[in-house]
From TrEMBL:
It comes from the Eukaryota. InterPro entries: Ribosome_mat_SBDS_N_sf (IPR036786), Sdo1/SBDS (IPR002140), Sdo1/SBDS-like (IPR039100), SDO1/SBDS_C (IPR046928), SDO1/SBDS_central (IPR018978), Sdo1/SBDS_central_sf (IPR037188), SDO1/SBDS_N (IPR019783). SUPFAM superfamilies: FYSH domain, Hypothetical protein AF0491, middle domain. Keywords: Cytoplasm, Nucleus, Ribosome biogenesis. Associates with the 60S ribosomal subunit. Its main location: cytoplasm. One of its GO terms (biological process) is cytosolic ribosome assembly. GO terms for cellular component: cytoplasm; nucleus. This is Ribosome maturation protein SDO1. Residues 239-252 have a biased composition (Basic and acidic residues).
Length: 316
C-alpha cells in the first residue's frame, strides 16, 4: 500500500498550471494564478512568489516530475531547471482548475451585472433596476442568441423549418441579423468591456425598458461668444442635394448658445454671472463627446464642460 506523505502530495489549491509542449512532450509547472499574471506584466519579479513548487512536471496533478533526460532532450543539455521554468512561464499556456475557473467566471459575471445595473435606468421613471432584474434580462438575451445560433446551424444543414410572419413572409435574412449579441460572460475579456456590450444589447432589444442613465453636466462659456453664429458644415461633394432648398431651415446652424442647448435633454438651471454664462443640465452619455468637442473647438478656450455626475439615477 502506498503511503501518501505530505512530500508527494500536490495540493491543487489556488493553483494554475502553465503548460508548454516541446519536443513532443508536454511540460507543466504549478504556479499561483494571480502571480503568473503579475510576473508576465513585470509587477512580480521573485519566482519564489510565483511558483508553488520549483519543479518541472509531466503531470502536476499526479506529482509526476519530468526526468532530467526528457528535459535535456526537449530544452537542450545546457538548460538549467530555472531556465526551463522561465521559458515555460514566458511561452506556456496557463490552465486553471475547474473550481478556480468557475470562481473567476462568477467574479466577472457579478462585476458585469453590477456595472450594468449602475448605468441603466427605466426611461420612464429614471429609477435603477435591481441586479437581479438586469441578470434575468441578460439571461433572456443569451437564450435568444443561442437559439438564433442553433437556428442558423439548422438552416445551413437544411433541417430548419422556415419561420414566417402573419403575411406568410419569411423572417429570416440579413435584415433579421442582430447588430449586438449577448451570449454570456467570458473570462477572456475585461468586465468593463463586457458590461458595455451587455448595455448595447439591452438597449437594442429592450427585454425590459432600459436607457443609459443621463450625465449631469455644467457648461460655462464666455458671454462674448454665445451669440456668435456657428459655422455651417461644408456641403457634400457632388453638387447640391435635391432636398437642400426645402431643408434650408434645418441647415441653419444657429448660435453657439443654441448649439450647446441642443445637446442638453433637460436644463436644470442657467444663469449669467458677470461675463460668464453657466448652464447645468442632463445629457445622454452618447452626446457627451460631441458636446465637449464643440465647446472646446467653437469657443476657442472660452468655454468648458464639467461632469457633475456620471450617471444620474433614482433609487427606491
Amino acid at each position: 500500500m502506498v503511503i501518501q506523505q505530505p512530500s508527494n502530495q500536490i495540493k491543487l489549491t489556488n493553483v494554475a498550471l502553465v503548460r508548454l509542449k516541446k519536443g513532443k512532450k508536454r511540460f507543466e509547472i504549478a504556479c499561483y494564478k494571480n502571480k503568473v499574471t503579475e510576473w508576465r506584466s513585470g509587477i512580480e519579479t521573485d519566482l519564489d512568489n510565483v511558483l508553488q513548487i520549483p519543479n518541472v512536471f509531466l503531470n502536476v496533478s499526479k506529482g509526476q516530475t519530468a526526468p532530467s533526460a526528457e528535459l535535456a532532450k526537449a530544452f537542450g543539455k545546457d538548460a538549467s531547471v530555472d531556465d526551463i521554468i522561465l521559458e515555460i512561464l514566458r511561452k506556456g499556456e496557463m490552465q486553471v482548475g475547474e473550481k478556480e475557473r468557475s470562481a473567476q467566471l462568477e467574479r466577472v459575471h457579478n462585476e458585469v451585472i453590477s456595472i450594468v445595473a449602475s448605468k441603466l435606468v427605466d426611461p420612464r421613471t429614471k429609477r435603477v433596476y435591481t441586479p437581479g432584474m438586469i441578470e434575468k434580462a441578460l439571461d433572456m438575451l443569451s437564450s435568444q442568441a443561442h437559439q438564433k445560433q442553433q437556428e442558423e446551424k439548422d438552416t445551413k444543414s437544411g433541417t430548419a423549418t422556415p419561420v414566417t410572419n402573419e403575411e406568410g413572409q419569411s423572417t429570416s435574412g440579413a435584415a433579421q441579423t442582430p447588430k449586438y449579441h449577448w451570449t454570456g460572460v467570458t473570462t477572456t475579456k475585461s468586465a468593463k468591456s463586457q458590461a458595455l456590450d451587455a448595455m448595447k444589447a439591452l438597449i437594442a432589444y429592450q427585454p425590459i425598458p432600459v436607457a443609459r442613465a443621463r450625465m449631469r453636466l455644467r457648461i460655462t462659456c464666455s458671454t462674448q461668444v454665445l451669440k456668435q453664429t456657428v459655422k455651417a458644415p461644408k456641403a457634400p461633394a457632388g453638387g447640391k442635394d435635391k432636398d437642400a432648398e426645402g431643408a434650408g431651415e434645418h441647415k441653419a446652424p444657429g448660435t453657439v448658445k443654441d448649439k450647446i442647448l441642443s445637446f442638453i435633454e433637460q436644463v436644470e438651471n442657467q444663469d449669467v454671472m458677470g461675463s460668464e454664462w453657466e448652464v447645468v443640465g442632463f445629457v445622454e452619455p452618447g452626446a457627451f463627446k460631441g458636446l465637449s468637442d464643440f465647446v472646446g473647438g467653437e469657443t476657442k478656450g472660452q468655454g468648458r464642460v464639467e461632469v457633475l455626475d456620471m450617471a444620474v439615477t433614482h433609487e427606491d
